[in-house]
Amino acid sequence: MGKRLGEVEAEREELVIAERVLHRLAEQDRAEVETAAAVAPVKAQVAGRAVLLIPHRGDDPDETALPVGSRWRALPAGKIAGIVLAVLRCDQRPGDLAGGNGVHRTTVTRWVREVVGLLAARAPRLDRALKKITRKGGGIVLLDGSLIRTWRRAGGENRKNYSGKHKCHGLLVIALTDDRGRLLWVSAVRPGRTSEITACRYDRLTAHLHAVGLGAIADLGFVGLDDSGPDVDPAVITGYKAARNRPLTRGQKLSNQALAAVRAPVEHGFAHLKNWRVLGKVRTDPKWATDLVRALLVLTNREVDR
């Protein structure tokens, strides 16, 4: 009889322990459900449409619980930045970089377009760049244009990109630098057949220079750009151009030499910009070239300031 009572007591203790375990498991499940409900999106109606309202994240999130990288990216952000710089600096083919990093070629192309778009949005505007020079006490800027070569494409749409001056297909870019050759602003790209004066008039360059009281020194390709009249100080200063029946005098030649020496740093600005080999021969859509050049302007100034 005593043995039977001992077995009953043991079974009772086991049942009590099992009941406690089940109670704790039930409490844990209830807490997990409440936590999931707190962070899960809530359905609501906005303007007659069903939407999901994302709850507000706490002010002190647990950084150790955050995932490393993004679930929407195949590679970390630093690796993506290195791939994009390889495309821009060394003109690496997206297909070659894609094979070595385990992603598709279109993924690399999309990363390049995204980064270029973000950088192009940080490029300075013309009016703000000129006002910045005025605040620093500058009196002149250097003006010049350059042709960015492109691949020759078949079809009539590519004829406008042929430059008779350079005898090749390309896109015209106008740039302003300070007296030390640091790039301040680049224009939107124009077809290669566009003259430098026409490109400047598209951007109303002389009006912006008159507004802030600055003067631009340019080469002979910009003669005739500033037609404000004799009573107004010229905004664009150029040298003297010789005519067939009117050679230059000694004083005019010396003036041209002095202006050429002053505007020499603008060539350094274009040299820094074209160090990015992706501009060696643009293979992409010319419509995208404006964002590309402006993004490289931001990167070039960042590199020069280091």
Instruction: Please tell me what the overall shape is.
Output: elongated
| Major β-sheet annotation | 7 strands, mixed
Low-confidence stretches: 54-68
What is the average per-residue confidence, as pLDDT, rounded to a whole number?
80
Describe the structure in your own words:
There is one protein chain. The protein is 45% helix and 14% strand. With 306 residues, the chain is α+β, with helices and mostly antiparallel strands. Strands 3, 4, 5, 6, 7, 8 and 9 form a seven-stranded mixed β-sheet that branches. Helix 2 (77-90) packs across helix 4 (105-120), helix 3 packs across helix 4 (105-120) and helix 5 runs parallel beside helix 7 (205-212). Mean pLDDT is 80; it is low at 54-68.
Supply the key terms.
306 residues; 7-stranded mixed beta sheet; two-stranded antiparallel sheet; alpha+beta
